[in-house]
Design a protein that fits this description.
It holds the Pfam family PI3K_1B_p101. By secondary structure, the protein is α+β, with helices and mostly antiparallel strands.
Length: 748
């Protein structure tokens, strides 16, 4: 058994090292088959943990960093499911993670997350499994009230109906009942704590025969024992074992003592305790407001007609955007003299008390400024790097944005499709953030995570169309090799599943490969990569307000052939020879490593241009002949890569001729205007449904963070005071970034 597992682990390592081209057809299958071997025979879990630990320690000693994060995720996934893991293995794994904290990101970030979870799991075995099942299956429990849901969005215009049907059938077939989940939680907790002393067969039969009421009783008893012990400052493994022994004896009665001294090991082989797939809802994306609506329903089910009390209270605290918040200070009533203060006012509250947490930095007397919680008005925790220090066992990205309001819900939004689908997701995210500035409904209670699985149409030639529509997936694969191996290889398997006839025989057990990979991705993909969203303002008439939209991956500009005389256009200048394309005026800000502002203005004739927000694998920058090339890092995905097809005029004996040359440069923002009567056609995110015609001028720049009227009034009030330059710098809006979760983030 150990030799078979060792071979499977070596196959995963060869796949990561890209030393075996013959394995490319099986990419993504080796990790899945490795987990399936342990799932079918749980007794192999300690053996696999030892093998993975040995390989991790070898990679550490030989500085093979590219395999550390994939093996660490694989190890943590095994430890979450397994029972019977010795304390020595937990301690070795924890010690290994602490040694990784000296490495740069993303290694230290992933290691810290694993170390935090391992510390609790070592003292209270079964905690990770219990919390994951309770949150993912939305089981009601007061001691662990966290809930998660996976929202799977598919655009029916981009993904075929056969693929949608196949995915929906596989998701529905994997759903389990709440009773089954409670049985799994009770059985896993008792086996993880008691080990060989647990009569697994008798426990399984007893739970199967128990009624719903009895099952709920023991479920809540086990959860209470685990959570109360895990919440202690110094949890005791012996104390945890004693409490679960009482529950075990109460559940089995006399059979509990008989099972410790008798039983046929062949007949009483420990039954497999599966880790149920998370609760996934399938959605066809047909409405622009669909994401917002589904998230609101997740927070507030249809059965509840009103918002919860803590959310309703927000409007009563004077923090709503509809209030008059221009005045941000209030006059203090004390004199500011120390001897006039009441007795005891100088006494500091006890450390760790709510008064200490709320106090912050305060001064005596004078003008007291009103506290403006930045995460409330500017929910930056959605688009900034997640903090490393998270509370043990809680869903990633949790934390209190307002006193008394916790993020109990985690929405994992998974989209399937190509770059066009990601463009629609960026639109929905931007629209959602704008609505948040008007009504604070989601931000205080919801942790929002984005996931992406590329699904490209199989009928399109792989050499031409698919790389165009899969540029962001290719970038994620270059940034995170484990994403490339695990997620980017799913597309052929999804189309193969769609071609298979549906299996109507429910008695036959089928391993759902695609659903298992999706589950692994949403559980272990906790490290986001942030992508800049760009806003584009399009003018069809310079005397009118522009049309605004956003894009995530690409803006393509074409010159319209037809000439339409329009008012406000000056006649074509003399001396400009008629040729292909149009005369364009470009003004852009160069992207420099020093971030110093340097503006460039160019007039040229061009047939078109492309603005890409996702860099190619090997981006070469060649500026215009009269402009030096920009100096931005190749992996920099927070600036635009602009390719201009310039028309070059040449004269010879045969007359004038025209040729084209492509110039590329990087910029953070750009303005382009047609100097002739030829108009422009703009296409956003490669989506034919998002095409704008008859454009005279357009401006592109980073999309600013949506701000409420309260923030704007505060900014205007502060700008009237002293230190204008400092206040203007502080008031400068942050750029809106959209996170997409991967396994490790960007691996340099």
């Amino acid at each position: 058994a150990e030799l078979d597992l060792q071979r499977s682990v070596q196959a995963v390592l060869r796949e990561l090292s890209a030393q075996a081209p013959a394995l490319q057809s099986n990419q993504g299958m080796w990790r899945w088959s490795l987990h399936k071997k342990v799932e079918r025979d749980p007794g192999k879990s300690p053996v696999l943990v030892r093998i993975l630990l040995r390989e991790l320690e070898k990679a550490e000693s030989e500085d093979l960093r590219h395999i550390i994060i994939p093996l660490l995720h694989t190890l943590m996934y095994v430890l979450t499911k397994a029972t019977g893991i010795t304390e020595e293995l937990y301690q070795r794994t924890y010690a290994f993670c602490t040694r990784l904290l000296t490495l740069p990101t993303p290694y230290c970030t992933v290691a810290l997350d694993c170390a935090i979870r391992l510390k609790t799991e070592t003292a209270v075995p079964g905690t990770l499994y219990q919390r994951m099942v309770i949150a993912e299956q939305n089981l009601t429990n007061e001691l662990y009230p966290y809930q998660e849901r996976v929202f799977l969005f598919v655009d029916p215009e981009l993904v075929s109906a056969s693929v949608c049907s196949a995915l929906l059938l596989e998701i529905e077939a994997a759903q389990v009942t709440p009773e089954a989940c409670m049985r799994h939680v009770v059985s896993h907790a008792l086996q993880a704590a008691l080990g060989e002393a647990c009569h697994a067969g008798a426990l399984h039969r007893k739970l199967q025969a128990s009624s719903r009421r009895v099952l709920e009783h023991y479920f809540h008893a086990v959860v209470a024992a685990v959570e109360q012990m895990a919440s202690e400052a110094s949890p005791s493994r012996a104390g945890h074992l004693e409490r679960l022994e009482e529950i075990y004896c109460s559940l089995l009665g006399p059979a509990a003592t008989r099972g410790r001294c008798s039983g046929d090991p062949l007949q009483d082989r420990p039954p497999n305790i599966p880790l149920p797939s998370p609760y996934i809802t399938f959605h066809l994306w047909t409405d622009q407001e669909q994401l917002w609506k589904e998230l609101v329903l997740f927070l507030r089910p249809r059965s509840q007609l009103r918002l919860s009390a803590d959310l309703e209270a927000l409007d009563l605290q004077g923090l709503g955007p509809d209030r008059d918040l221009a005045r941000v200070s209030m006059l203090s009533t004390d004199s500011g003299i120390e001897r006039d203060l009441p007795v005891g006012v100088d006494e500091l509250p006890a450390p760790g008390s709510p008064e200490t947490e709320r106090a912050g930095l305060q001064r005596k007397g004078g003008i007291k400024k009103r506290m403006w919680p930045p995460d409330f008005l500017i929910p930056s925790s959605w688009d900034g790097p997640l903090g490393l220090h998270r509370r043990t066992g809680r869903p990633s990205g949790d934390g209190e944005l307002l006193p008394g309001v916790s993020r109990l819900h985690t929405a994992r939004v998974l989209v399937l499709g190509d770059d066009r689908m990601l463009g629609r997701l960026a639109q929905a995210y931007h629209r959602l953030r704008k609505r948040e500035t008007q009504k604070f409904c989601l931000t205080p209670r919801l942790s929002l995570q984005f996931y992406y699985i590329p699904v490209l149409a199989p009928e399109e030639p792989s050499a031409s169309r698919q790389p165009e529509l899969g540029e962001l997936a290719a970038f994620l694969g270059r940034a995170d090799p484990w994403y490339e191996s695990t997620v980017n290889t799913l597309c052929p398997a999804i189309h193969k599943l769609a071609q298979m006839p549906p299996c109507l025989d429910t008695s036959r057990t089928v391993d759902p490969f695609i659903l298992d990979v999706i589950t692994y991705y949403v559980r272990m993909g906790t490290q986001p990569i942030y992508f800049q969203i760009y806003t584009v303002k399009m003018f069809s008439d310079l005397s009118q307000d522009p049309t605004e939209d956003i894009f995530l991956t690409e803006l393509k500009v074409k010159i319209q052939d037809s000439k339409i005389p329009r008012e406000g256009f000056s006649p074509r200048r003399r001396g400009v020879a008629e040729g292909p394309g149009a005369e364009l005026s470009m003004c852009y800000q160069k992207a420099l490593l020093s971030h110093r502002p340097q503006e460039v203005t160019v007039n040229l004739r061009a047939t078109g241009l492309v603005l890409k927000a996702i860099p190619a694998s090997e981006t070469e920058v060649s500026g215009f002949p009269h402009c030096p090339p920009t100096a931005a890092p190749v992996m920099d995905h927070t600036c635009l890569n602009v390719s201009v097809t310039e028309v070059v005029k040449s004269s010879n004996l045969a007359g004038r001729s025209f040729s084209t040359v492509t110039n590329t440069f990087r910029t953070s923002n750009i303005q382009i205007q047609s100097q002739e009567q030829k108009l422009l056609t703009l296409s956003l995110d490669k989506d034919s449904r998002r095409t704008f015609r008859d454009v005279v001028r357009f401006e592109v720049g980073p999309c600013p963070e949506p701000r409420s009227r309260a923030q704007k009034s505060k900014t205007s009030w502060l700008s009237l005071q002293g230190q204008k330059e400092m206040e203007m710098a502080k008031a400068k809006p942050k750029s809106l970034l959209m996170p997409i979760n991967t396994f490790s983030g960007i691996v340099q």
